[in-house]
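User
Please review the sequence:
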Amino acid sequence: MKYDFKDIYTDFFGVEEETKKELNQEQIEMSDLIHRIDNLYIDDVSKNIFKNIIEYMRKYKEGIEKNYIPFRIIIESTGAEDKEISDILYKASINYNYLDDESQKVFSFYRYEKDYKFDNSFLIFQDLVGIKLEDTKDEQRFFYNLESVIKEDKHKIILIYGNKEELINFFLGYESIKNNYFDFYIKTISPEINNIYNETLNSLDIDDDFKVKVLEYIEKTYKPRIDYKEYIKDLVHYISFHKELPKIEEKKTLDEIFSELNELVGLNDIKKVLHELVDVLTLKEKTKGTLNIKDLNLHMVFLGNPGTGKTTIARLISGILYNLGIIKENKLVEVGVKDLVAEYVGQTAPKTSMVIDKSLNGVLFIDEAYALAAKNDNSYNAEAIATLIQAMENYRDKLVVIFAGYTKEMQDFLDSNSGIVSRIGYTLEFPDYTTDELVDIFKTFTNKAGFIVEDEAITYLKEIINENRNIKNFGNARFVRNIYEKTIVKHASRVKDKKQAKILKTITKDDISIENLKLE
């Protein structure tokens, strides 16, 4: 049953100013609650819902409203307003005798509950991600008990707090409970920069010059999705103690990023493409629209075997695009197909949307993406692809998607899906490393760690690589890294009784280890 509160509290809020002077204590308390709601950072629709709820409580107490409405509320929140929202609702429910008793309980899913009992009248659920850390049976028991207590229809208020991503994941598989019983939705909003600035200044005694620097700092560092109260508190504490602003993490220059790129072994064709991409993006930025250069399609496909540098290059691309201002955050969200596709009908789109939402303003890297190919009319995979395609189109200025996987399997996947292909701007092929390149990668590991490698050890390493490079799922750089890590362990055991610095630092043929490597 859905509830409509239209015009339910106009009799109170339409009172003339002269009459307000004669408000009784109950009206004064109501006015205070309304004032607190107006000061919340929640959207206007949520404010109206909130006020309607409290006014309904008052009318129920006075007998004007006869039907008891169990207020079960979902609050989409960053955490900053949670306590204030709870306090307002709890105070109102007590003022207007809307609960069977005054007991309340806060459930955090980071704290294990052997039996989920909901005997209290005012229930708050938070830290929703914790429920996915529990055993499936515990999760099912929680939702079973929750639905059971809701069906009892006792005088209870239930609040569930979480950000958008947490709420989607929390109700994944239990959407019917949300849709059937939770009729009220409150959404918090982020304060504007000037609100953050003013609230920060209210807690500081600083001169005008420093105030300007504080504003500049906030403009550069405040992000809407974070808990603004914690942000303000941390900033005020830092300034109060240090008498200066925290240092802002500086962006790397393009020269620094390309220095990292050029230090990578091999990948010459990849490096050339990235240099050319940056040249075009830089030209577009310099000319400020005076040249008719269309927006580049930056969605990409990476083709190659494991260990050929796909993830490393994706991270560097994220840094390049962030440095050029193409994306707002230097972040790479790495997922596999299991993070996108759910087990039951109707769950995949929300699950994929949750990953997309987390990736906005950055780069989404989907490894082994060929597994998304819809085999045997797999509607779940098709649902994930459709959601991705829509996001790639709708968020072209906020999201770069990179699909990665084995060359053959990825080519088959792309051939079967024109929707993905039409939205790909760059296809990069990552060849297997040559034996000499893999040796150079091994030397990079040892040089950075300060080791010296004897020639005999290098010769033996080449033999191992050549013997195994044609095995199924050969790991390329990953294969060499595994050898390096096992070699260091074997070396440490060999020299444990030695003291000479040269011996301690020298890798010999006897140290090169392939023990316990899975070679097929």
User: Anything to note?
Assistant: Residues 254-430 form a domain with the Rossmann fold fold (CATH 3.40.50.300). The first strand starts at residue 72 and ends at 76. The first helix runs from residue 10 to 13. The chain is about 50% helix and 10% strand.
